Amino acid sequence: MSMNPPDLRPDLSRARITETRRDGQPTIGMVSLGCPKALVDSERILTRLRAEGYGISPDYTGADAVIVNTCGFLDSAKAESLDAIGEALAENGRVIVTGCLGAEPEYITGTHPKVLAVTGPHQYEQVLDAVHSAVPPAPDPFVDLLPASGVSLTPRHFSYLKISEGCNHKCRFCIIPDMRGKLASRPQKAVVREAEKLVEAGVKELLVISQDTSAYGTDWPRGERAQFPILDLAKELGQLGAWVRMHYVYPYPHVRELIPLMAEGLVLPYLDIPFQHAHPDTLKRMARPVAGSRTLDEIAAWRAVCPDLTLRSTFIVGYPGETAAEFQTLLDWLDEAQLDRVGCFKYENVAGARSNALPGHVPEEVKQDRWERFMEKAQAISEAKLAAKVGQRIEVIVDEVEDDAATCRTKADAPEIDGCLFIDEGHEDLKPGDIVTVEVDEAGEYDLWGRRV
């Protein structure tokens, strides 16, 4: 799970709030850490506060209180969250904590006893209650009007669309089900209505997120749903005229039914699937499905239907008990799978995870060596795949335009986690959200360069 990069953190002025503070208006600051799902939670909290008449401050000094939306997935993420809480206390002094780490209130108050309140993940009402207590609302019904699209913490042309909360899996290394609960899917009509509003407001790309996207709707009563609701949702979203990108897709067999929708252009030919490992014994210790070889067959079948399919995945090296032979199996599997986008984490204990008690923990220096070897192979695969794109004409979406170049993404690139395509000539009239055709004329290890055609 990646952290928000600095230029996407809401405390660094990314919120789309442009009006000045009126006299007597209470104002709240926000620091949002963790994954895009947490970012969506931050947007919802700010939207509710904005509707109640609160102003949104882009810095600490202009805020009457600061909300820190934390991440608690890994110990390193917990440390970053504690640091962010400490910084907010030092800079502002009045801090409300929410998010995944909020599921462990004693952990937070043990380090920062002066926080005003601690609430858990997606506890919107409790956050609002804490804000009301710390900074009472003072709305002006003639002035405080909520924009139709609410408060967004991403650029105007793309938006995350969260379709469910929680997860029903019991992976031994993960505590997300303990923090966020079991799968709870949003009604399809509500998801589609939100997507329609986003597209009407100018969003060109919808990034579908959840803890387990392919399980969407399977928590509903059988008589009240289609067999696999994610397929119907994908078809509806594909009619809206925006790019639709699927994240966190667990490799259930019915995922193969999404692939024709990608071949038809209804959704982007992009799958973000957390494979985690390839050796059956490692997967068994992770409490993951043991299907490494069958997964290779499935990947081949997907590509046969949609040759342009981009596959992104994340892996863990140095998991307890991982032998040299198991790691070599992972490298060999990666060679055969030829995934387009790959991330890798060195295993670390997380308080409350069942994997902590497993025997055979791998020394840190061995984890580091395996991580380096894995990433070296992944980089070589990426470089070769991008080199094959030179000379091709492809569509890109513009993210940012500066004097020297326009930073864009292809359909194979998700914001912040994948590569970019740069246009360094004839880009002056472009603006974020434009979708243009380019011819690729240069490739690197992770990025491309091209010219408009």
Give a quick precis of the structure.
The protein has 453 residues and is an alpha/beta fold. 32% of the residues lie in helices and 19% in strands.
Q: What do these coordinates show?
A:
The chain is of the alpha/beta class and 453 residues long. It starts with 26 loop residues before the first strand and ends with a strand. Helix 6 (188-200) runs parallel beside helix 7 and helix 11 (324-337) packs parallel to helix 12. Residues 1-19 and 142-148 have low confidence and may be disordered. The chain has helices spanning 36-51, 75-91, 105-111, 124-134, 176-180, 188-200, 229-237, 259-264, 280-286, 292-305, 324-337, 364-387; strands spanning 27-32, 55-57, 65-70, 95-99, 117-118, 158-162, 164-165, 184-185, 205-209, 243-246, 270-272, 310-317, 341-346, 393-401, 406-410, 421-423, 435-443, 448-452. The strands form five sheets. A five-stranded parallel β-sheet has the order 2-1-3-4-5, with helices on both faces. The protein has a five-stranded mixed beta barrel with strand order 14-15-16-18-17. A three-stranded parallel β-sheet has the order 6-9-10.
